[in-house]
UniProtKB/TrEMBL annotation:
Record protein name field: IPIL1 protein
Organism: Rhagologus leucostigma
Length: 147
């Protein structure tokens, strides 16, 4: 969605996260008596690839013959707390990615990018040569029932 407030245009974008290969997302609904800060958790499940013909790609779940320990998932190590997606880690990762990518775009010399503080989304403000400002809010979601 988008809207205009005086000299600022606000864009709100819903970004659906997809699990990388050898992973799946499982929505676990909260079943307590009180509503928590977030009503659901997204668990990252490592998929076994031992029986699938995936070449030399190691299985995260089972150790290989050459390596006696299971492989570690970069997703679990960077964007999760335990085995659950961490929205604060995702927001921080995307904010850093946007900031780094911005410097490689031709517009960066004429527009200033400011990453606004947010722990549950990625919020950026673009200020250009005119008095107009663009604010983009990326909100992260996972589709229920997605593979």
């Amino acid at each position: 969605s988008w809207s205009i407030f005086e000299d600022r245009i606000l864009y709100q974008l819903l970004v659906f996260l997809q699990p990388p290969s050898r992973h799946s997302f499982r929505l676990e609904l909260y079943s307590g008596t009180r509503l928590p800060e977030r009503c659901s958790n997204i668990r990252v499940v490592l998929e076994c690839t031992c029986l699938k013909k995936m070449g030399d790609i190691p299985c995260f779940v089972h150790p290989s013959k050459n390596n006696q320990t299971a492989q570690h998932s970069p997703l679990l190590q960077t964007l999760c707390t335990g085995s659950y997606l961490d929205v604060e880690e995702i927001a921080c990762w995307v904010q850093n990615l946007v900031q780094t990518a911005w410097e490689h775009l031709p517009q960066w010399q004429h527009w200033q990018l400011t990453v606004l503080p947010s722990s549950h989304s990625c919020r950026v403000l673009l200020s250009g040569p005119s008095d107009m400002q663009l604010c983009a809010v990326l909100v992260f979601a996972v589709e229920q029932g997605s593979p």
